[in-house]
Amino acid sequence: MAENSRSFLDPAVLSRLMALPLNARQAMLGNVTGHHRSPVRGSSLEFAQYRKYVPGDDTRRLDWRTWGRSDRFYIKEFEADTNLRLCLLIDTSGSMSFGPAGATRFDYAKKLAGTLAYLAAQQGDAVGLHSLAEKSVEIPAKRGASHLGLVLDQMAAIQPIGDTTLLTALHDAAEKIRQRALVVIFSDLFVPPAELKSAIQHLRFRKHDVAVFHLLDQKELDFDFDRPARFIDLEGGEAILADPSLIARNYREAVKQYMHEIDDLIRTTAIDYHRVKLHEKYDDVLVKFLLSRVQKKGGR
Description:
Number of strands: 10
CATH superfamily of the largest domain: von Willebrand factor, type A domain
Oligomer: single chain
Strand order of the largest sheet: 5-4-3-6-7-10
Shape: elongated
Low-confidence stretches: none
CATH topology of the largest domain: Rossmann fold
Helix content: 25-40%
Mean pLDDT: 83
Distance between the termini: 42 Å
Radius of gyration: 23 Å
CATH class of the largest domain: Alpha Beta
Order of helices and strands: HEHEEHEEHHEHEHEEHEH
Strand content: 15-25%
Largest sheet: 6 strands, mixed
Number of domains: 2
């Protein structure tokens, strides 16, 4: 696939973000040594706990100071470091095509996802891709430059079309991504928040670190149209001709209630949620995301 199909990757943005690590907020289970915390005990420099010595333990890990104080042998355990599995879940339903050509919600999602994929691969982590709509793409997370190329090419090829299957796709992903991972969702979240909460909880139950980029256009929130307009359902429903002055109040109340329910979902599921307006610079959004995950000293 031609390189220009990866136009969602901007070398200037990649250069800006390369100095920022992509971290998980919880322990990961990888298959090679990496930079992220693991629940498996190992020999990294981060102390985890003491435990009593048992025959067969490596005597080099005995804590002689503790023996001197208690006359008992204790082993110092450390947290093993591992690589991260980054699983990118992109909503490819028709509503993601909202916006002008070349600057749709889906285009924005690809910029975020493609950049994170590149950054993760550069630090030796595994990257996978799942589309969340009728025509599914499922690429398990793996490491390596050739696999990254496959992910980016598939990302360039998929198109937003059809009804949303976001909820079913999230439940499927929770079952299919077997080892704990950083699961990043890119979507407009045009589904009932109560049902979305169930899907998010499924991912959290599977021990995944879940992040969500909620992509919204300011027009959707303000609904400041001043003349009758024809509103088109991008997911295949009937178009509606309406006078905004007659429905604006009810629309804004519905949006307010929806946002309230989303805020409740965030509080109760502990996801890493980012509400993104399409007019925002996507590299600024990613800087905020990456910095929020930089582990503070002593915060492990």
